[in-house]
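Field: COMPLEX_INPUT
Field: COMPONENT_COUNT = two
Field: RESIDUE_TOTAL = 517
Field: MODE = joint
Values follow.
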Amino acid sequence: MRARTKLFAPLAVVAVAALAGPASTALADSGSTTYSATLNQINHSGGSGMLTLTLTGSTARIQENWTGLAASFGGAPYPHVQHIHIGAQGVCPSTAADTNHDGVISTTEGASAYGAIGTTLSVKGDTSPASGTNIKIAPSGPSTNYARTITLDSKTIASIKAGTAVIVVHGLDPSTLSKQAQKEKSDLVPSLPLAATSPALCGSLNAMPVGAPQTGSGSTQSIEHEGLFGLGGGLLVGAAGVAIWARRRTDKATDFVS
Amino acid sequence: MTRRLIRALSTLGSRRGLYALALAAAAVGVAVVVVAVISQTSPPVPSRSAYGHLNASTAPTPAVRDRHTSPSPGASHVTTHHPTVPTHHAPATPGPTRQPLALTTASPPTRIDIPAVDVHSDVIGIGKTPGGGLAVPQPGPNLNKAAWYTGSVTPGQPGPSVIEGHIDSVYGPSVFYRLGALAIGDRISVTRADGRVAVFTVNAVRTYPTHDAFPTSIVYGGDLSQPTLRLITCANFDEAIRHYTGNEVVYAHLIALKR
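Field: COMPLEX_OUTPUT
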């Protein structure tokens, strides 16, 4: 019987050990932060895109792809001015932002959501707000594959870190606008039609998740159903105990020789 | 067994009764342990540590896949797959410039189906933790569902769409328990809220042995021009600390769009 007790004991130990929780692990850290934005269509532009921005100090390495936007304007590739908008709610406007009900959310109408221009994402040269409507240095055509490393000013950096930076790509196909909107002038550059400067893609800039997701408990790697092992082990230990007790009783008895 | 127990109880105090009780308890105990042992789940299938090419554009879907390596009479164990002709292009492809296969409207995923590893799950949206990491499904009705990172593009849009799932939970295997068994060429169908189904094919499987080795900029970024999919779960169980120390990432790219 004692031998059996020894046999059962490890089971109880296993059952107890299996209840111990897993240890947690630390996450790594690095000197730069990477942000990303999903560029979804606005004003039914038909486009889609994504941008990533890796910020190290004031240096921003930007990679961006978008597709599906207006291809040409007056026989030339359609210029799509694009910016990091800052200092407002950090979101893209809903259709409720179309306060003059012409069917188009103009850049001005969207400003309460995404704010003013902080940085111009030009293909070359100046990146300040002053170049915000400079179509000569804007990416052009229906799609782009943009990669540029630029220096950001303190206001833009602060807005990015605060989670209020929004990427906005402008320029709509005029034929997709309402009759009323087609006749309207741009709210930014009166010499241009409304379509030329209105938002076509918009996306909030948010930090990429840091570290790696913790998607496992390890239960299938260790002992499962600890409760059952505990119950079974407990019963076996109890059985051994009762047997030992019974044996002691018989040891005391004179009418029994073991 | 019950009768034996009753008899043992009725004769409690006698030597035979005590032995009978001990025997009964031992029998029940053994039975319970046997049930527990039988119901153990084997650990998840580990993937090949580096398999396929991360860049989908330079790695078209191979025609040969090596999943079913156990030969059976009359059946070839190398299956040739022809690329699926997309049933619907969005938008239509007029003129000489072929539009890339992609969806330009955003619509969150609602369901994921991976027939090769028998994954059929609803998909919930998930954000980040207060610490900035990717949150994971918590205990409750969503624990064993796949989760789409709401900061990534929706499936079918250009860029990487990120869907994670637990490999296991305290209750046993979870939704991505068999993710390691995925092979190049396997199909992943993701249904979106707008009814469109984005069909992806696996082009690479990677196991990152430590969480520190997890390449966030590649997993959540990388090639932004193509619609791709990343499936993430845990990997590399460490017996010493009784925890997964790494991650498994399946890289796939869009091959078809369906209604």
